[in-house]
Design brief:
223 residues; alpha/beta; two-stranded antiparallel sheet; 45% helix
């Protein structure tokens, strides 16, 4: 079963023997947690663009010092009290959120499900709780299809690029099979290479031009 947790909703679909089943979507996205958290506090609006960043930065412990960033008070002691109050509210909201996700998944899971594949930025937020729960249940869990995204292209987006990167890799494989092209290993440039001349980079990575395959697809640029 693939579980995609985004900001607005959560979706699942199941694979059996290579065949995909019908997808199911719910409202259990990160917005559910945000609205629940705001309902337990005062003076916060769901339109505040800083809320998500602060909740993520606060981490599993819901660090009260980090939560102080959302306080609108001016006095130090009041800001501290705000942080502590928001931390308690977030701890409760976070606990309620991952439990709601698990209850929803269990209600949709057939007994023959062997593995859960989680993806989406919100999934990472509750990863510790998900790992702990399903480990006790004896159900295998993998994250983002075990796709590794090179730092050189993540651009700070991280695992949210997993689907795009996987599709890109798949298209390369299909293209090479279609054309019979043998692809050499590609070495991504590192930050230490920035500022190097073209000749220096070529010497370091030993780039060797490959002969164009006879079956290479021709493109009419005038079309």
């Amino acid at each position: 079963m693939y579980v995609m947790l985004g900001y607005r909703n959560a979706s699942i679909f199941t694979f059996r023997s290579g065949s995909i089943g019908a997808g199911i979507t719910s409202n259990f996205g990160m917005s559910w947690l945000v609205n629940n958290f705001i309902s337990k506090t005062s003076g916060l609006s769901p339109d505040n663009p800083n809320i998500i960043e602060v909740l993520v930065e606060a981490g599993v412990s819901c660090d009260s010092q980090v939560m102080q960033k959302l306080s609108r008070k001016r006095k130090g002691d009041e800001i501290q009290l705000d942080g502590e109050s928001m931390s308690k509210a977030l701890l409760l909201a976070r606990d309620e959120y991952w439990r709601a996700i698990v209850r929803w998944l269990r209600s949709k899971m057939d007994e023959d499900i062997e593995e859960l594949v989680f993806c989406g930025g919100t999934a990472d937020y509750i990863r510790p709780e998900i790992d702990t729960y399903f480990q006790k249940e004896g159900i295998k869990v993998s994250w983002h299809g075990n796709i590794f995204i090179p730092d050189e292209i993540s651009s700070g987006i991280g695992n949210r690029m997993a689907d795009v990167w996987a599709l890109y890799q798949y298209m390369i494989i299909q293209f090479d099979e279609l054309t019979g092209y043998t692809r050499s290993e590609v070495v991504l440039l590192t930050k230490s290479d920035e500022g190097s001349t073209d000749e220096e980079v070529k010497r370091k990575y030993n780039f060797t031009p490959c002969e164009r395959p006879s079956t290479f697809i021709a493109v009419n640029e005038n079309v």
